[in-house]
Each structure stands twice: as C-alpha cells, then as structure tokens.
Amino acid sequence: MVLIIEDEHSIRDTLVELFDVDGTATTAVGTLRDARHALSVCSYDLIVTDIRLGGKRDGGLQAMAAAGLLSPDATVIVLTAYPDEANRDASLRLGATHFLEKPVDLTTIAALAAQRGVATAIFPASTPATPLARQIRTE
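Now predict its structure.
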C-alpha cells in the first residue's frame, strides 16, 4: 500500500501514475486532514509526502508524525522545494527514510520504492536492475 501526500495536483497525479501498476494499491491525498484520515484507516508500506501542504509550513511534518504512530514500518520519502537543514533534521527525527529535493527524477522515487518491494511503472518488479537503483541501494 502506498500513500501519496501532495497538495500540488500535477505532482500528485504524476506520482499516482508512477504507482499505477498491478499489485500496487495507492491512496493519494492533498491535505493534512485527508492524510490523517487515510493513515487512520489503513497501514502503508510506503509514504511519499511533501513538506508543505496547503500553505502549512509543517503540514508534511505533521503527516509524518501521524505516520510514525499509525504506519510505523512504512518507508517515508519526503519531497520538498525547501531543502534546508531544519526541514531535513525534522523529517529524519520523524522517521523519514529519504529526503529529496524537488524536482525529483521519477526513476529515483521508483528505485527507492522497489527497495521496499513496491512496484512502479518504471520498475514493475520489486527489485530494479539498473545502475541508478544499485547506486541508491548502496548509499
């Protein structure tokens, strides 16, 4: 199960398309309130979240805090256009596994998802065999 938390429609739609493959169930939300609700009804393997949601500087951080309680085993990929150290440190404290600066290459997200066993349109099998994926696995 994948949860996408992104308030920008175009980015959210692109991420939904990335995970739109057989065997990958995806929920996509655009607000902190909807993210909290989604987390309360289901446990997720992978969460992709923006830091700022709907103008809230810490909306994604609040979503990560909820995820830590409700989906503690999830891999969390943080996407941000504001890659400062304060956001990075807060994200890592709240359980983020990866902190990526926008714009993000979809191959990077797909490779990280594959490491978690989540199929994508780029890597339909759970383990990618590309040089980028091997590089990401070893970092």
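Strands lie at 2-5, 26-29, 46-50, 75-80, 98-101.
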